[in-house]
Amino acid sequence: MRAIEIRDLSFAYEGSERLALDGVNLDVERGEFVVIAGPSGCGKSTLIKAINGLIPSFYGGSYKGEVRIEGHNPAKEQPHELFKVVGTVFQEPDTQLLTFSVERELAFPLENSGVSRTEMKELVEDALNRFGLSPLRHRSPSELSGGEQQRVAIAAALISKPSVLLLDEPTSSLDPRAAVEVLSVVHELNRSGMTVVISEHRLSLLLPFAHKLVVMNQGRIVDQGPPSEVILRMANRELVEVPDAVAAYLGLKELGIRFDRVPMDAHQFLDEVRPSTALMR
Questions:
Q1: pLDDT tens digits, residue range 49-93?
Q2: Which helix (H) or strand (E) holds 221?
Q3: In Å, how far from its chain's centre is CA 251?
Q4: What is the reported pTM?
Q5: Nearest Cα to 152, choosing from 99, 79, 227?
Q6: Of 15, 109, 112, 154, which is most buried with the most CB atoms under 10 A?
Q7: Cα distances (angstroms) measured from residue 42 to each of 24, 46, 167, 217
């Protein structure tokens, strides 16, 4: 069984004739790290909402096709029923954090799901330790930095230990340093075996450890596959951010310098360019 299977999914929001999703087909294997990219309004966020069941449970409209996540059909189950299957983190962490302390924030979704007090205490302590939040346990989320808030949001999304994590542009409101910190946490979660699907525009921070890059435009998937292959096909289409390392690689390629692989970030670029330039001397 795949982690996620999407077949011929189309959706238009209520009151709109435009398809926000148009015939989307996508497979995500268990343990994969999948990045969804594309211009604003291309359907990234809508696709995340369809995977976790917010569409069509909370957002009305015309829905066709099928989504399966770990064997569940989110269109026929309420989001709270998928609590132990999928966790979701959205763009603005302060809109997702509702209580007056980090500790209460982690306990809140467990209370709503009827978890016993004993189990709740164990799960909260585990999450505080796992995400380095113990020193912040009594702090109000509103007093935290953006990066700290997003760590709390991730911990709360994973408090029930689901197998799939969805993130909808989680670094959009963060400075570069905080973005790196948050995405490092996500990378470690994936390395531990969690399936991760993330919509994001800062591709240079993600592509080095992504397994698959999915590019969307006007509600459709226009390309998908290994990041090094897809980013080259997208280089001149202005649909996604081309990392500086890839742009430099393309420039050197025109000068006749060949690399063994397409570098996704500065570290990979330097690893490739050192032996290449040595050969030229």
A1: 999 999 999 999 999 999 999 999 999 998 778 988 999 999 887
A2: strand 220-225
A3: 30
A4: 0.92
A5: 99
A6: 154
A7: 12, 9, 16, 5
- As to burial, measured by CB atoms within 10 angstroms (0-12 exposed, 13-18 middle, 19+ buried), residue 159 is buried
Cα–Cα dist 68/276, whole Å: 46
Report residue 9 as tokens: 């999914």
* DSSP three-state, residue 225: strand
Q: Residues 243, 210: contact at Cβ < 8 Å?
A: no
For 122-219, strand residue ranges (E) read 164-168, 195-199, 212-217
Longest dimension (CA), the chain: 69
Q: Which residues does residue 168 pair with via DSSP β-bridges, in sequence order? A: 199
Other CB atoms within a 10 A radius of the CB of residue 237 amount to 12
92-123 pLDDT per residue, tens = 877 778 889 999 999 998 887 788 899 999 99
**3-state DSSP assignment of residue 149:** helix
What are the Cα distances from residue 198, in Å, to 1, 118, 214, 278? 21, 33, 10, 38
Reported as a single tens digit per residue, the pLDDT across 11-56 is 999 999 899 999 999 999 999 999 999 999 999 999 999 999 999 9
Residue type, 262: V
